[in-house]
Every structure is written in structure tokens, then in C-alpha cells.
Amino acid sequence: MRDRPARRPPRIARRNLRIACAGLAVALTVGAARTPEPGLDCPPAKEVAMELVASAENSTLDWRSQYQYIEDIGDGQGYTGGIIGFCSGTGDMLEVVTLYTRNKPANPLAAFLPALRKVNGTSSHAGLGDPFVKAWKTAATDKAFQAAQEEERDHIYFDPSVRRAKADGLRTLGQFIYFDATVMHGGGDDRNGFGSIRKNAMAKAKPPALGGDETAYLNAFLDARKAAIKRATVHGDTSRVDTEQRVFLNERNFTLQPPLRWKTYGDPYEIQSWPSPENRHAT
């Protein structure tokens, strides 16, 4: 996983996942895939979003292969693991394991809950180490652990981002831009957090909900995002903005309609059509 800034997930009350496009019929016949209704929370668009994030976070489109991922990437947040980069030092990894244990008390990670509580807010591995890494990878094959990762992704990162973007009058691309920013920077109001990025963007342009132009606002948001990346990372690489999200914006692809072609960290990717259950990731 790439070097990323510290993330401070907001405290968000847990709620059940609601699919805003319930009942959406999506045709996924060969050569005739129908565009889903606007909204990143429609299943095909959400799948595209996860593949886009995975290209930047893990250099793959197969985000489901990352349930087992775990390592210390040296960002001061302890272990980083799973499909969205949950961290032992920021509390969201603790939430994942807590939820997993609540739903399935007998699991490989339950014994590490006391240690996860103690290291929260630090980069420490105390009480974790190799046994914890091994247990994480073992748990990754368990559907209950996979479900816990997906639920925490939704209630901490995905759902709040999409909700905020819709309130700002943004279409699917803008909703993804908010989601990706929250994944990397966290949803807080610290200097490099999502809240500050949005505030800095709104000082330059109004979102559509306030009568502004969507393209102008998203360009302002991406400019503010680039500044935050450069402040918060050692590498300063802004390719997930420059050669991914800005590409889609310049193409005026506000619905994230495939085919999509982009680069992150110099690596090229392509999504040729809307993903289906039979074809969960593209090359």
C-alpha cells in the first residue's frame, strides 16, 4: 500500500446500509451494458469506485483480494490493513475487529482486542506483532470478517462521503472524489482532513447546491486536495488527482461511465464496462 497521510476517522453513529437505488435494474449483457442511475451508491458505480480506490491504494483493481492485506507502512499509524486501509493507530481497525467479534465471538482476532484498545492513537505494535498479522490473514478468509470490513468502510467512509456530496449537488464523479479524499485524508476538520479541503474549495467556488458550476467547484476541490497531499505525504505524489480524477473531470464524465482509462503512480488502468457479479474487476 502507498504512503498516505495520517487519517482521523470521525465518530459516526453506526447505521444500517441503505442502497439509494433499491430496485435499480441494470442490464449487463455483452456489448450492451446500461448506465446505472446517477449515484455512487448504485451497485455498479460503487464497484467502480472501489476499483478506482484500489488502483491508488494497492496497485490493483481487485479490491477483494485486499481483505488479507496488513503491514506497517511507516506513516505513524501502526498497522494498515484491509480493503480500505484500516489502521491500528486511528481506531477504525479496532472498530472492524470489534464488529467482527460481536457478530462472531469465536474468531482468530478476538484475543487481540485488549491490545488494539491500548495501541489506539499510537504507532505501537505492543501486544500485536507477528501473531496478530498471522491472525488477520487467517480471518481474511472468513466471510464474517469480510462483511465487517465492508460495513465499517461504508459507515465511516463511503456513506458519509456520498451523503455529503449529494447534499452539495454533486453527481457520481463528485461523490467519488469526496469518497477518495475521505479514504486518504479522513473525514475530520484538521488541516489536511476532508472538512478543510472542502472548506478551502468553497472559498474558491460554490458547489451546485449553492448555485455554483459543478466543474469549477470540483476543480477547486481537486486543487485543495493536491495541496493537502503535498503537505501530508513524504512522496507528494498527486497522480490520483492529476491522472485519474482530473482526467474524468476534463472528459466531463460526471456519471463515471465506462470505459475509464487512468493512471496512478504511473501505472495504467482501464475499466471497460460496468462491473457485474460475473466480472468483478477489469484489467
UniProtKB/TrEMBL annotation:
Gene Ontology cellular component annotations, sorted alphabetically: extracellular region
Record-annotated membrane-spanning stretches: none
EC numbers: 3.2.1.132
Role played: Aids in the defense against invading fungal pathogens by degrading their cell wall chitosan.
Catalyzed reactions per annotation: Endohydrolysis of beta-(1->4)-linkages between D-glucosamine residues in a partly acetylated chitosan
Natural source organism: Streptomyces luteoverticillatus (Streptoverticillium luteoverticillatus)
Keywords on record: Glycosidase, Hydrolase, Secreted, Signal
Membership in a protein family: Belongs to the glycosyl hydrolase 46 family.
Gene3D superfamilies reported in the protein's UniProt record: Chitosanase, subunit A, domain 1 (1.20.141.10), Chitosanase, subunit A, domain 2 (3.30.386.10)
Pfam families, per the entry: Glyco_hydro_46
Protein name: Chitosanase
Signal peptide interval: 1-32
Positions of the catalytic residues: 57 (proton donor), 75 (nucleophile)
Location of this chain's protein in the cell: Secreted
MF GO annotations: chitosanase activity
Highest taxon above the source species: Bacteria
GO annotation terms (biological process): carbohydrate metabolic process
